[in-house]
Amino acid sequence: MPLLKVDNISAGYGGETVIDALSFHVNRGEIVSLLGPSGCGKTTALRAVAGFEPVSDGQIFIDQKLASAPGMTVPPEKRSIGMVFQDYALFPHLTIADNIGFGLRGKPDVDRKVQVDHLLDATGLGGMGGRYPHELSGGQQQRVALARALAPRPTLLLMDEPFSNLDVELRERLSVEVRDLLKSEGISGILVTHDQHEAFAVSDKVGVMRDGRILQWDTPYNLYHEPGHRFVADFIGQGRFIPGVVSSGDAYETELGLLRGKRTCTQPTGTRVEILIRPDDIVPDDNGDIEATIKDKAFKGAEILYLLELATGTRLLSLFPSHHDHHLGDAVRVRMDAEHLICFPAAAEPNNSSTESIQ
Ligand code: ADP
Ligand code: MG
Questions:
Q1: Is 221 in the pocket of ligand 1 (CB under 6 A)?
Q2: pLDDT by residue (tens digit) across 255-304?
Q3: Residue 51 in contact with residue 74, Cβ under 8 Å?
Q4: With a 6 A CB cut-off, is 34 part of the ligand 1 pocket?
Q5: Whose CA is closest to atom 5 on ligand 1?
Q6: What distance in Å separates the CA atoms of residue 344 and residue 272, rounded to the nearest whole number?
Q7: SS (H, E, C) 43-68
Q8: N or C: which end of the chain has fewer CB within 10 A?
Q9: DSSP 124
Q10: Integer Cα distance of 107 and 100 in angstroms
Q11: Do residue 79 and residue 207 come from a single domain?
């Protein structure tokens, strides 16, 4: 039995359903993310797990005990969970050590001190216990919030966009630190975020959400390489869709010629499909059979991401090694080098919803 089992829950506000028949589970020691655009119901789902929102359908089990069901909600303080939010709201008049030890009031002083000192060290705040929150940077304050949530040794830590107030570099570093810390403390976690890089850095499994539902629950690797849903393919990573027609089990007629995949397409022969082409599927090759014009570029350090336009007007993204420094309007030759192809039934209207800008 997993540590947390969310079984077919629905929840909402004032009769309006926000999350609908949502199911997932978290095994002991596992860290998962709920990833999706703003407004898709991530916070509502997390608040239901925390016990702040009742469920109108389904059940939540924590450690095999029923925690939520229609008409029954075990309160947050009885769930053995810790929580960290975006606005981490430290107590300004308490020292860092007292902030961290806040949830340990009532424990003997010596136990409390051991645990606070341990967490100060574990979060890289050793020696700062006597300071006050305003004397710390934003990143350090967020570490205090994390330490405070971990102090009572919850079995499950819930994190709602905990890094979104921080700058990108710090966000990435803290994500990795949080993962390491939870793993070393043996605490399971759920991270809610709209930032796929954050979700990927922290999680064993990620649920991609849209409109109150999880569309795919999978490893970060599979979400990128094996998206099971058009929305997931679009939301995760970069890429463009080109139209095609299934010509046999693993081949597609396209304007780039016959593209062959390594597996059998689930669509019947003759079906119009859209094929996902990632930037790493298109490689520069002076002898390549595809001619394209450079429409936009974004310098990425070791690589340059180019937006290419074919004679037909179709646009593709391609990663070139950084020394291939072309100008907008240049003609280049490329070829397809796809490990495998992912296709979806064609939408009524061709739709590359990724923005045209690649910066
Ligand atoms: P996310 O965290 O993914 O951005 P939320 O769970 O916060 O999404 O919100 C999902 C939907 O529920 C949104 O349409 C939002 O406007 C609505 N909502 C969130 N909180 C409340 C509330 N307290 N009262 C009414 N509607 C809410
Ligand atoms: Mg939210």
A1: no
A2: 988 888 777 677 889 999 999 999 999 999 999 999 999 999 999 899 99
A3: yes
A4: no
A5: 41
A6: 9
A7: HHHHHHHHCCCCCCEEEEEECCEEEE
A8: C
A9: T
A10: 13
A11: yes
Q: Is the CB of 46 under 6 A from ligand 1?
A: no
Q: Is residue 106 part of a domain?
A: yes
The amino acid that residue 44 corresponds to is T
Residue 166 is assigned to a structural domain of this protein: yes
Angle ∠(80,83,87) on CA atoms, nearest 5: 165
Do 124 and 189 sit in the same domain of this protein? yes
Ligand in nearest proximity to the CA of 87: 2
Query: What are 300-318's pLDDT values in tens digits?
Result: 899 999 999 999 899 999 9
Q: Does residue 358 sit within a domain?
A: no
Same domain, 215 and 290: no
Same domain, 128 and 10: yes
Q: Is 41 in the pocket of ligand 1 (CB under 6 A)?
A: yes
Whether the Cβ atoms of residue 37 and residue 24 lie closer than 8 Å to each other: no
A 10 A CB-CB count for 77 gives 10
Query: How far does residue 260's CA lie from ligand 2's centre (Å)?
Result: 41
List helix spans (H) across 58-186.
Answer: 96-100, 109-122, 138-150, 168-185
Protein residue closest via CA to atom 20 of ligand 1? 44
Tens digit of each residue's pLDDT (9 = 90 or more) over 5-64: 999 999 999 989 999 999 999 999 999 999 999 999 999 999 999 999 999 999 999 999
69/120 same-domain check:
yes
The rounded distance, in Å, linking the Cα atoms of 82 and 66 is 18
| 356 inside domain | no
Q: Is the CB–ligand 1 distance for residue 39 below 6 Å? A: yes
| Cα R_g (the chain), whole angstroms | 24
Q: Is the domain of 195 the same as that of 267?
A: no
How many helices and strands, by DSSP H and E, does the chain display?
8, 21
The arithmetic mean of pLDDT across residues 137-155, rounded, is 92
Distance between Cα 212 and ligand 1 center (Å): 10
Number of domains within the chain:
2
Identify the residue whose C-alpha is closest to ligand 1 atom 27. 13
CA distances from 45 to 19, 22, 206, 211 (A): 7, 8, 14, 12
Q: Residue 216 is part of which domain span? A: 4-225
